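Q&A FORM
Asked by: J.P.
Topic: structure of The export of O-antigen and teichoic acid related membrane protein

PROVIDED:
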Amino acid sequence: MTQQTGSTVGASGGSADGLQHTGYGPETTESQSPNSETAPAEAMTDRKLSLADIERKRSRPVSWVIFIVALLVAIIAPYGIGRSLAVRHTQTLIAYLDVFEPRGIAFLSWTAAFIAIVSIAMCVIEARSWTWRVILLLSVAAEQFIAGLCLLKMSFWYSTYVVFGDKAYLANAANLGIIAAGFGAVVFAVLFVAILVLVKKDSPLNMLTRSWAALSVFAVIEVLALVIVLFGGLLTMV
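REPLIED BY: S.T.
REPLY: Here is the structure written out as tokens.
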């Protein structure tokens, strides 16, 4: 009996030692569990870092800096050039403007301003597209050049009368076209914010805040503003 008991104890001890040596014992299991928990965490950290690197590469801050500088140049330089031409070559400018009807001049200036405003919205929607950025630069430059030629500013009708004399209505028509586009943008912005703030989320009116629906509403408001300028008697008032 003693030998059997000793052999049993020895066998159990040997089996325990064997489990420890073979790596299937409880100590080995506990020592491996922290590694098994940290491995997915390290993999997730690497994945997050890689995604951050990808987003940083896609951001391209240098290109945005170049675009902003180009936009500032498109805002400032054409206006100064147009204003200089209006002051120094007034008679030549009047000869060119006199070919058009006031409504035609207002429509041309409104078109330039309208395209510029739409390009701003499209640059936000299509942030990675350079096509709309180029269109924005060109349209802003055109709008600012027209504004400079026609001396657009607060109380512009005084300046246009001093420079253009009895032909001031031609320059005023261009200024009214630009103002109509800007006024339409302000009305749309107020309407858009009012829908976001005042209307419930489950209301059908929230459809108007989606990108293409919002652009459609904006286009309707802009056309109404143009119609008011062209046929509302404003061209004969200033």
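FOLLOW-UP: The mean pLDDT is 81.
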